[in-house]
Write a structure and sequence with these properties.
The protein has 10 helices and 24 strands. By secondary structure, the protein is α+β, with helices and mostly antiparallel strands. β12, α9 and β13 form a beta-alpha-beta unit. α4 crosses α10. The longest helix has 22 residues.
Length: 486
């Protein structure tokens, strides 16, 4: 009888310790997996999970680094900056062993936003058939984080996904803009490129904010709190799946430990009905992401909204223009750049017709903001100020490169002017050195000027000229004015 109890007790202890061993095994998130691309020339963070107090050792490219899991069971190891190269393997040791293979070191960018960042290469296959056919010639990889929202709090791991290498078949699911941007990087640096694709076609900006950032927007914070207190299953449930905070918790928070060079952001269509909020939303989001990535000057490059709908000849009030203006006004910090897209979409069908040109413009911004080429001009002429001289408004610009030009020659188009009644009329415009003179003889005392102010501002043609005396980049749409004299 005693021997039976002893045997049973021994079996119980064996099961108990076996369970403890399993529960204490170290794990890594899905992003830290076979085929990953690690960011070169910046300290690399590798992280995972296990039992509190467990020792973890990471071996990679001749370096060994250690960590201990914290009270929440998370461990983080920081590796020294590496040069581009690969493929490598990584050994991670704890109570168990993890072996990760086919790792490359190169450039890594997070691609975040809605429709035009999500749009896959397969949707533009006819336009880029030759590029797709030779996709396997260039080392570009993507980790596609599938849509997942969480209103309970930030997740520790993405819900699904894996690293995929571009070839003529797989590249069809890559973000088209992300992939074309990656090709620009490869053409200039000849290093592997990794893309972290976190996109949802119809997602508003507030869905991409953290609970902490939402505190600055009481209405959005209250909406997020209602969902957090609900009984909806994780990642499913609410009819309004785009409620504030859900996508940050579900898709960005679990990826933000991964070392990246910067963020590409293309979003705004879902916020057009509320353009007054957008400047604050975007500037808050930039600061929010820099906190999540623990990078105070994390390069953040974003695309100003494309043209939308039919081209109209007469001035109009436009929420699309108001949102573009909010995006322009968000250009108030280091490491932030905006790329114009409105001139690439005369059809007005919600998609720039030339993604390759847009990718080139984004890469110019990356050169200036992320790759240290401080002398490069990566934006069109930016509105600085204006002053009335009689019936003519003198408008001044920054970032002129070698001067202001009318793209294609001829008449300068896209300007509107208004008096004290703020009723805008089409305006004549003329370049004079670093200024543009704007007037309409029907307005003797001008007070305000708009440029490219329309849902679809096709035809606006103010550019700067680059150092080789070619067309440079387009001026972003803007609105400005002068104070009335008392």
């Amino acid at each position: 009888m005693h021997s039976t109890y002893r045997a049973a007790g021994g079996l119980f202890l064996a099961i108990m310790f076996s369970g403890l061993a399993v529960s204490a095994q170290i794990r890594v998130p899905r992003l830290v997996s076979d085929g990953m691309v690690l960011q070169r020339e910046i300290p690399i963070r590798i992280w995972g999970f296990g039992a509190p107090g467990e020792k973890v050792t990471v071996k990679f490219d001749g370096e060994t680094a250690g960590s201990v899991t914290d009270d929440n069971g998370k461990w983080v190891v920081e590796l020294r900056p590496k040069k581009a190269g690969g493929p490598y393997v990584m050994d991670i040791d704890g109570i168990n062993h993890i072996w990760i293979k086919n790792i490359m070191v190169g450039e890594v960018w997070a691609c975040i936003g809605q429709y035009n960042m999500e749009l896959p290469m397969g949707k533009v296959a006819a336009q880029y058939a030759d590029l797709i056919a030779h996709a396997g010639d260039v080392p570009v990889r993507q980790f596609h984080i599938l849509e997942h929202y969480d209103y309970k709090g930030p997740r520790e791991n993405v819900s699904s996904g894996h690293w995929e290498t571009a070839d003529p078949s797989s590249v069809l699911s890559f973000s088209a803009l992300g992939y074309l941007f990656a090709r620009q990087i490869y053409d200039h640096f000849h290093v592997p490129v990794g893309l972290i694709n976190a996109t949802v076609a119809d997602a508003p900006a507030e869905a991409w904010l953290s609970p902490g950032a939402l505190k600055f927007f009481p209405d959005y914070a209250n909406a997020a709190a209602r969902y957090a207190d609900s009984s909806f299953p994780e990642g499913k449930g609410p009819v309004d799946r785009m409620a504030p905070g859900g996508l940050l918790n579900g898709m960005i928070a679990p990826a933000a430990t991964y070392t990246v060079r910067g963020v590409l952001w293309y979003q705004g269509e879902a916020n057009v009905q509320r353009p007054g909020d957008y400047q604050a939303l975007l500037t808050t989001l930039i600061s929010d992401y820099r906190r999540w990535w623990s990078e105070g000057n994390l390069p953040f490059l974003y695309v100003q909204l494309e043209g939308h709908g039919p081209v109209k000849q007469e001035p109009e009030e436009s929420q699309w223009a108001e949102l573009r203006e909010a995006q322009r006004l968000a250009l108030d910090g280091q490491g932030v750049a905006m790329t114009v897209a409105a001139d690439l979409n005369d059809s007005g069908d919600l998609r720039p017709k030339d993604f390759d040109e847009l990718a080139k413009r984004l890469f110019l911004a990356a050169e200036g903001m992320a790759y240290g080429k401080s002398t490069i001009i990566y934006t069109g002429p930016l509105y600085r100020s204006m002053k009335a001289h009689g019936k003519t408004m003198h408008v001044l610009f920054d970032d002129l490169n070698t001067g202001l030009i009318v793209k294609g020659g001829g008449e300068l188009k896209g300007f509107q002017i208004a008096g004290a009644d703020h009723r805008f009329l089409p305006a004549k415009a003329l370049i004079d050195g670093k200024k543009v003179y704007v007037w309409n003889d029907a307005i003797p005392h001008p007070m305000a000027v708009r440029y490219a102010w329309a849902d679809n501002p096709a035809g606006a043609n103010l550019y700067n000229r680059d150092i080789l005396f070619k067309d440079g980049l387009p001026a972003p749409p803007f609105e400005g004015g002068v104070k009335a004299k008392k």
